[in-house]
Amino acid sequence: MKISVIGTGYVGLIQAVGLASFGFDVTGIDIDESKVKMLNNGVCPLYEDGLEKLLKKHVGNNLKFTTSYEETIDSDVIFLCVGTPQDKEGNTDLKYIFSAVEMLKKHFQSQKWLVIKSTVPIGTNRLLKERLTGYDIEIISNPEFLKEGVALKEFLNPERIVLGFDENDSSSKEILEKIYKNFKEKNIPFILTNYETSEMIKYASNAFLATKISFINELSKLADKTNADIKTVAYSMGLDDRIGKKFLNAGIGYGGSCFPKDVKSLIKQFEYNGVVPKIITATNSVNENQIKWFFGKIKNYYGNINGKTFAILGLAFKPDTDDLRESAGIKLIDLLLCEGAIIKGYDYIKQARENACNIYKSNASKPFHGSNFYVLDNLYDTVSNVDGIIITVEDNKLNYEDWSNIFNLASEKIIFDGKNILHKEKVEKFGFEYFGVGLK
Ligand SMILES: NC(=O)c1ccc[n+]([C@@H]2O[C@H](COP(=O)([O-])OP(=O)(O)OC[C@H]3O[C@@H](n4cnc5c(N)ncnc54)[C@H](O)[C@@H]3O)[C@@H](O)[C@H]2O)c1
């Protein structure tokens, strides 16, 4: 069976390389020529643990990349993994989906199965089906649930496979079960349903996780005022298996390429359908305020931050990724720079540091950022001579750093931990003044 994957970003590249590792003949298609060139040379344009090694193993054998849609002619199955960003109002912008489908249409000559992995609003798969009336093509909704940072591991061991079909489609189930045979053998749950349910599962999952985060973040503000300790509260809540301990760490709010845009899109989908989304609206507004609230804590402490130098530890939106989209660290950097602070930024992932340099160099609307924002390749250089250390990534590696050395290097011995990741007692023992989120 021949497979094409359209869009070789975080989702598409994992899908292409992962399916090649299952033995399929895979062609990855992207409009970005430089990305395609890098991939054909076995170089990964994004950071994901283990991905480049697997890419190198398969590229030139049963995996290739191209910008030409013509290559899809002899593919049986095409996975659509292009981006679905938000527009100015928060709706999902489907322009990449529609343009990919228009390009594909020119090369539909035999029967094909088009699998939509991109996150799309409820109703989109049916709309695409209508747009492709007259073509011998089946559309299957197969939302993606990968977690950046552990994406390859997740691809090989997913928690579930969700497939949404058209009611009159009798061939797709067998085709998809063939492709995902490895998962069937591992007894990974398959949810076979209609388009709309499949589409809603994706938004419901992300919105629920985002709500858990906003819930604990809202509580953290009350903890801050009352001497309650949010870490102990969250830990104790999490021991109840109806609640679960994940996504209950208070901090500076969620970011990334999915939660913020998917939550906003879901709000818009409610509104479009005349239903008032109370919980999800609150999830979004709590999240948008959380970073400002934390920034307020920093400002309150210093009074005036103009000319103060801060080390920001964490540039990407989470550990082990280079993805800076909607990163809370970057948002905080923007707030600090706007008030005249000088920022020394660091991330454990080299590509995240490179991406941060690119953002600030290329952002013409914020010319002043260039001079006050530095990215350093070493954590200890980053914390040297700063007026404060701000943690913006939930990475336990930070606890294994030499905090005694860091104490000596920093000018002011102050830590603002926006992820409550450091062991408070330990750094306080070294003499740091420590501020977390909702800690006693
Ligand atoms: N990143 C994640 O963690 C994640 C997880 C689950 C679901 N998703 C969803 O998956 C989709 C893709 O996300 P992503 O993070 O991989 O996006 P991305 O921006 O990293 O990648 C999209 C890729 O599509 C390419 N592209 C755009 N238009 C194209 C076209 N017409 N033809 C060929 N290629 C084209 C772009 O050049 C880019 O390489 C989105 O809908 C997203 O919401 C993402």
From TrEMBL:
What residues sit in the active site?
C258 (nucleophile)
Domain UDP-glucose/GDP-mannose dehydrogenase C-terminal: residue ranges: 311-424
On whether RNA-binding is a keyword of this UniProt record, the answer is no
Q: Which UniProt keywords apply?
A: NAD, Oxidoreductase
Name under which the protein is recorded: UDP-glucose 6-dehydrogenase
**What metabolic or biological pathway is this protein involved in?**
Nucleotide-sugar biosynthesis; UDP-alpha-D-glucuronate biosynthesis; UDP-alpha-D-glucuronate from UDP-alpha-D-glucose: step 1/1
**Which family is annotated?**
Belongs to the UDP-glucose/GDP-mannose dehydrogenase family.
Mind listing the GO biological process terms from this record? Answer: polysaccharide biosynthetic process; UDP-glucuronate biosynthetic process
Q: Which terms does the record give in the GO molecular function aspect? A: NAD binding; UDP-glucose 6-dehydrogenase activity
For the keyword Oxidoreductase, the answer is: yes
Binding positions (substrate): F145, L146, K147, E148, K202, F247, L248, N249, A250, G251, G255, K318
One Pfam match, given by its short name, reads UDPG_MGDP_dh_N
Q: Which EC numbers does the record give?
A: 1.1.1.22
Q: Which domain of life is it from?
A: Archaea
Query: Where along the sequence do coiled-coil regions lie?
Result: none
The reaction(s) this protein catalyses: UDP-alpha-D-glucose + 2 NAD(+) + H2O = UDP-alpha-D-glucuronate + 2 NADH + 3 H(+)
Provide the residue positions that the database annotates as binding NAD(+).
D30, K35, T84, T119, E148, K261, R325
